[in-house]
Every structure is written in structure tokens, then in C-alpha cells.
Write a structure and sequence with these properties.
The complex is a heterodimer.
Chain A lengths: L4 H11 L8 H17 L4 H15 L10 H17 L13 E6 L6 H16 L3 E5 L7 H12 L2 E2 L8 H14 L4 E5 L8 H14 L3 E7 L6 H11 L4 E5 L8 H10 L3 E5 L7 E3 L2 H9 L4 H7 L1
Chain B lengths: L4 H11 L6 H12 L5 H15 L6 H16 L15 E6 L6 H14 L4 E4 L8 H12 L3 E2 L7 H14 L4 E4 L9 H17 L6 E7 L5 H13 L3 E5 L9 H9 L3 E5 L7 E3 L2 H8 L6
Parallel strand pairs in B: 1-4, 1-5, 2-3, 2-4, 5-6, 6-7
Antiparallel strand pairs in B: 7-8
Helix pairs in contact in B: 1-2, 1-4, 2-3, 3-4, 4-11, 5-6, 7-8, 9-10
Classes of the chains: A alpha/beta, B alpha/beta.
The structure holds guanosine-5'-triphosphate (2 copies) and magnesium ion (2 copies).
The site of one magnesium ion has 5 residues of chain A, from helix 5.
Chain lengths: ~300, ~300
């Protein structure tokens, strides 16, 4: 059902055998297909529109290189623009006085707890940091136990569980423990919440105010559809995020939400969750995600040719 | 509802004192796309509207209800409640799906519902992989007053399922709900493990599982197609539950899923609590996509 862009553009490209500069007509025809391909890849509509307008402006009048067909030329422009809009990845920012608070937020089931442990493990092994993890999730059954077990599996300390404490109190205790026991980083895992849930959004804003995190990471599922707009907008406006962690990139979703969330928040995609195992975390590379969104594994070699 | 107000505003502004022309239709199509219907289905539904109303003066209400009726016509046939076969002791329900979509929570909600109907219910903690998955289901068991068959994390899930079914049969329980670990549909190894659970269950009752439920997260976009297709092919999914419809996502991908796969949609999840499960109502769903529901 979901063709890659190359397949989708096949017919149109066959008509574009002419040499010379790309005409408005050629470009418009190709961009109609690009629009559908992006929508099928779950890029949010407002972002698709902006993208298509940008590409159109860049493409019209461009000389077609000798080595490629006009169609390939359009794909190259689309791809390059996509890579540019996806932006570069970035490291976890630990530029703050120790213990550095890192706050994890997102919708229910997006992968916050798993990503908390993955990031903690990464900081421990790659940067030799002493990390404390704390679960502020007093809602989901066995959420605190889940983080505790992940801590045991990775050899990372977790804050002791005190029943009855609210999330802000747990966050304060975590920071206090972090200070007293000399931790470099305190990872704060929170309960999943809907971005339209005013009460719970206010709760996580209170945690932010109590801890002043150096990083507030929005953990989002790579399978997210058009709702990426609402989620990214609300978490960014109400909590203020500093970066995005995109999970389940090991699935077969085209991952258009990456582009949507990046565009809407202007915040970098910092890390990708690539599996259920605790070391399945990778840095973000825009070109790989671009190829994936376009449904073209071969896009890099194609672009190199051009 | 709170989440569809954007859609409502859009349609209202498009059609106030306007003819249904190409431009209006395009905007309408875009509004459907933002509800996750996908570009193809959005185009199709809009074309149907154009066929009957093109060029006419139409009020926003009229447009909305025509479109809602169109959508309801597509999803209506799949809106079917989950009926237990009283002859079965137990009716085995296997719950499968991608990670974090709401399997365990939905089992808790279903357990409460069946108990309220006077059925005896047993739960099986078939997620022997994820940290604290067993504890999570045990808490749902306590909340709903249902026994939970469990083994330690790391145990063989198929073996656990077999043991649970043996017990449920011996105790003549009405329903056995089996939880499974979340898995992405493109992971063939994990999908094989799921098939193994089914094979092992069949050794005791070759008609089981009687219902194989797939939980779909309403936040998911077009990848839901791949989820339904592969889970159906691998383990004969014959029922869907759309979770997290209390959020801002509208779950519009269900429209094309209903058309393509015709798998019954038994219920929707509307929250994290034990009562937050509702029957899937095609008209209400279609109206909520169009921003027509009043409450
Ligand atoms: N395949 C895959 N699974 C993942 C990834 N990240 C998390 N998961 C799985 O997704 C499910 C949910 O992950 P959690 O970390 O519990 O999600 P959460 O956001 O903490 O969930 P709540 O606390 O309930 O809101 C679990 O089954 C994880 O194993 C990933 O990158 N790939
Ligand atoms: N708002 C809302 N949250 C839900 C709903 N259903 C489940 N959740 C939440 O989503 C998260 C994941 O739910 P689980 O039931 O653990 O999902 P799962 O499919 O069993 O997850 P894994 O076993 O890790 O694959 C939890 O935080 C639940 O409370 C729903 O209908 N609405
Ligand atoms: Mg969690
Ligand atoms: Mg579960």
C-alpha cells in the first residue's frame, strides 16, 4: 500500500526525460507525489505543506546534472531539504552544576522508563557518570518497580521507593539524594500523560520548577501519526522541552513524526530507541531518517551519484 | 470533545456562506488527513461528498453530518461487541500488540467488565520479558479480584500459557485472558514466539484462542496497517481494541483498517482506569472524527 517515493514517482519521472532546467510544471507534478508520500509516512500536514513550498522554490529553474535524470534531481532536492529540516542530532547536555537533572516526559507507553534506563546506562559507560534514576510515576501499576528492576539490570542506582509521596516530593528527594551522595546526573522518569490533560501537565511543570532540569526530553513513538503536532506543541509550550527521543525506530514505521516534532518545536532529536534491550539506543542521523521517511533505502547512493 | 475542536473550527470556517467547490473540498480533505485517515481514504471520503453535494450551498452542519454518515457506513460493519461463548470453559482471549499500546491495561478493564457480567475470570501473565510486567498484571488482578497465573520474568511464555489454560479448564473458569509481551510486527523472531504460544494453547484446546485481540494505540498513524496485517497473518487476530481515544489523537486510521481488513472492533480505551473501556460505537466514532459529539 505504501510505496516508496521512487516507485511513486516512476511514471512522472519517465515523462521527465528532457534535459535542461526543471520547469515549474515538472516540479509541481513531482511534488504532488512527494506530498502524498510524506503524508503516508505520517509527516504532519502543516509540516508537509511548508516542506513542499520550500522544495518548490528551490527546485524550479535548477539545472539538471548530466549524471542524473530530472526525476533523480528532484529527489535529491527533496532529500537534501529533508535532511536540512531534520537538523543535526545533539548530545545530552550536562552543562549544569552536579547533580544535573534530566527530566523525561511524554505520552503513556511512549518508552520513557525504558529510555531513562538506556540513557543512564549510556552516560555511565560512555561518559563515566555516576547516575541516579528516580521514578516519579505514582500512577501506573508497578511503574516504580519497573525502573528499579532496570536499575538492577544495569547496575545503576535508583531512588528508594517511598509509598505515598507525590511526584514533586519524589523529585526533591531525588535531587537531595543526588547532592548528598555525589551523583553527577539525576534522571527523573515521569508517568505518561496526555498533552491535553491540564492537571497532569501542570504537575510535570511543577516538577520542572522544583528541579530546573538541564534537559527535558520528550520521548515519542516513531509510529506517531498526525497527533505529533498536538503532542509536540503542548509539551513544548507547557513544559518546555530541550530535545526529543524517538523510540521504536526498530519498527517498520516510516517515522514522519520525527520531521513533524522537530519542525514544530525546533528542538533537536537527540537519540533513537532501537529496541527493547537496555543498550538499544543510538545517536540520530538525519540522512538515515530522511531515507526512511521517503521510503528509499538507496537514497544515499543516489544522492552521492548526483 | 476537547480534541476535535480544531477540526470543527476548520470545517465551520470553510463552509460558512460558501459553495462546496474544489477549494472547499480540498480543505475538507486536509482536515480528514489531520485526523489520520491517510491521504487515500481522505480523498475517497471527500469524493463521495462531492458526488452528492458539489456546487451546492451547504451548511457546516450538513457537511459534517454527511461526512460522518459516510465514515459510519465504513466502520459500522466492524462495530461488534466482544461476546463470550458460554459453552466454553474457558473462552480463551489472547491479547497481542505492539509495545506500550495498552495490552495489560485493557486486560484489567476487560476483567472488570466480565466480572460485572457475573463471569469467573482468570488472568495469565504471559509477558515474561518486560521488567515488572508480571507485577503490573498482578496489581490488575488484585484490583479486579481475579486470580493471576504467573511465573518469574524470563520464564517461557508458551509454557506459562499452557499452565494457565490447564488451570482454567480444571477450575471451569468462564474466561481466560492471556497477556503477552509487546512486540513490533516486523520482528520475525518475536512473532514466531507468539505463534508458539498459540500452538501450545492448541494442544489443550484446538479451538483456542477463541478471541485474539490486537490493541492499537489511537496515536499511531499509518503504521497501524502494517500492525494489523502482520498480526492477523501471524496469529489470526479476530478482534481489535483502539486505546487512548481519550487523548488528542482521533484514531482515523481505523476507517481504512475497517474497510480493508474487516476485523471487528470490540471496544475503545478512554483512560487509564479500570472503568475506562467503552463499546465501539460507529456513529459516535464517526461524529467525534467530525467534531460533532456534543458532550
Ligand atoms: N521495540 C522497542 N520497544 C521499546 C523501545 N522503547 C521502549 N520499548 C517498549 O515499549 C514498552 C513501553 O515502554 P516503557 O518504557 O514502559 O514506556 P513508558 O513511556 O515508560 O510508559 P508509561 O510509563 O506507562 O507511560 C515496553 O514494552 C518497552 O520494552 C524501543 O526503542 N523499541
Ligand atoms: N490515556 C490512556 N492511557 C492508556 C489507555 N490504555 C492504556 N493506557 C496507558 O498506556 C500505558 C501502557 O499501557 P500498558 O497496558 O502497560 O501497555 P502494554 O501494551 O501492556 O505495554 P507493554 O506490555 O510494555 O508492551 C500505561 O501508562 C497505561 O496506563 C487508554 O485508553 N487511555
Ligand atoms: Mg513509565
Ligand atoms: Mg503489558
Amino acid at each position: 500500500m505504501f510505496e516508496g517515493l521512487t516507485g511513486r514517482l516512476g511514471d512522472i519521472f519517465d515523462k521527465l526525460r528532457r534535459r535542461g532546467a526543471l520547469s515549474e510544471e515538472d516540479v509541481s507534478a513531482a511534488l504532488r507525489e512527494v506530498r502524498v508520500a510524506l503524508l503516508e509516512a505520517d509527516v504532519a500536514l502543516p509540516v508537509v505543506k511548508q516542506f513542499v513550498a520550500q522544495v518548490k522554490e528551490r527546485a524550479i529553474g535548477q539545472e539538471v546534472l548530466k549524471s542524473v535524470t530530472p526525476g533523480q534531481q528532484v529527489i535529491k532536492i527533496v532529500h537534501d531539504n529533508l535532511v536540512e529540516m531534520l537538523g543535526e542530532g545533539a548530545d545530552i547536555n550536562l552543562n549544569a552544576a552536579a547533580p544535573v537533572p534530566v527530566l523525561m516526559v511524554g505520552l503513556q507507553g511512549s518508552g520513557k522508563t525504558t529510555s531513562t534506563a538506556k540513557i543512564a546506562l549510556r552516560l555511565k559507560t560512555k561518559e563515566r557518570k555516576k547516575v541516579l534514576m528516580a521514578s516519579l510515576d505514582v500512577r501506573r501499576p508497578a511503574a516504580q518497580e519497573q525502573l528499579k528492576i532496570l536499575g538492577e539490570q544495569t547496575g545503576i542506582a535508583t531512588l528508594s521507593i517511598v509509598p505515598g509521596q507525590d511526584p514533586v516530593a519524589i523529585a526533591r528527594r531525588a535531587m537531595e539524594t543526588g547532592r548528598l551522595e555525589g551523583y553527577d546526573v539525576v534522571m527523573l522518569d515521569t508517568a505518561g500523560r496526555l498533552s491535553i490533560d491540564e492537571e497532569l501537565m501542570a504537575e510535570v511543570a511543577a516538577v520542572r520548577d522544583a528541579t530546573k532540569p538541564a534537559e527535558t526530553l520528550l520521548v515519542a513513538d516513531a509510529m506517531t501519526g498526525q497527533d505529533a503536532v498536538t503532542v509536540a506543541t503542548n509539551f513544548n509550550d507547557k513544559v518546555g522541552i530541550t530535545g526529543i527521543v524517538l523510540t521504536r525506530i526498530d519498527g517498520d514505521a516510516r517515522g514522519g513524526a520525527a520531521l513533524s516534532m522537530r519542525q514544530i518545536t525546533g528542538k533537536p532529536i537527540k537519540l533513537l530507541g532501537t529496541g527493547e534491550k537496555i543498550d538499544a539506543l543510538e545517536p540520530f542521523h538525519p540522512d538515515r531518517i530522511a531515507g526512511r521517511i521517503l521510503g528509499m533505502g538507496d537514497v544515499v547512493s543516489l544522492v552521492e551519484k548526483a | 470533545s476537547k480534541s476535535s475542536s480544531k477540526l470543527t473550527d476548520g470545517i465551520t470556517s470553510i463552509f460558512t456562506k460558501r459553495k462546496l467547490d474544489d477549494e472547499a473540498l480540498e480543505e475538507l480533505e486536509e482536515l480528514l488527513i489531520t485526523a489520520d485517515l491517510g491521504p487515500a481514504t481522505a480523498a475517497k471520503v471527500t469524493a463521495e461528498l462531492a458526488r452528492t453535494r458539489f456546487g451546492k450551498e451547504v451548511s457546516p452542519e450538513e457537511v459534517k453530518s454527511t461526512l460522518a454518515a459516510e465514515v459510519a457506513k465504513i466502520v459500522g460493519p466492524v462495530a461488534r461487541p466482544l461476546l463470550l461463548d458460554p459453552a466454553l470453559k474457558p473462552h480463551v482471549i489472547l491479547v497481542v500488540g505492539v509495545n506500550g499500546t495498552g495490552k495489560t491495561t485493557t486486560i484489567g478493564k476487560l476483567a472488570r467488565q466480565f466480572k460485572a457480567e457475573g463471569k469467573s475470570v482468570m488472568l495469565a501473565a504471559g509477558d515474561t520479558f518486560r521488567a515488572a510486567a508480571v507485577s503490573q498484571l498482578k496489581i490488575w488482578g488484585e484490583r479486579t479480584g481475579c486470580p493471576v497465573v504467573a511465573r518469574d520474568t524470563g520464564a517461557d511464555a508458551a509454557g506459562l500459557a499452557y499452565e494457565a489454560l490447564e488451570r482454567a479448564r480444571a477450575e471451569k473458569v468462564d474466561v481466560l485472558l492471556i497477556d503477552t509481551a509487546g512486540r513490533l510486527q516486523n520482528k520475525t523472531g518475536l512473532m514466531e514466539e507468539l505463534r508458539k504460544i498459540v500452538r501450545v494453547i492448541k494442544k489443550l484446546d484446538e479451538t483456542a484462542p477463541h478471541t485474539t485481540l490486537l490493541t492499537l494505540d489511537a496515536t499511531t498513524g499509518q503504521n497501524a496497517h502494517s500492525q494489523v496485517e502482520i498480526f492477523r497473518d501471524m496469529v489470526n487476530v479476530n478482534g481489535l481494541i483502539l486505546t487512548k481515544l481519550d487523548g488528542s489523537a482521533r484514531g482515523g486510521v481505523l476507517v481504512s483498517l475497517a474497510e480493508k481488513f474487516k476485523i471487528p472492533v470490540h471496544a475503545i480505551g478512554v483512560g487509564e482506569g479500570v472503568y475506562d473501556l467503552r463499546p465501539f460505537d460507529a456513529d459516535a466514532f464517526a461524529k467525534s472524527l467530525m467534531g460533532l459529539n456534543a458532550e
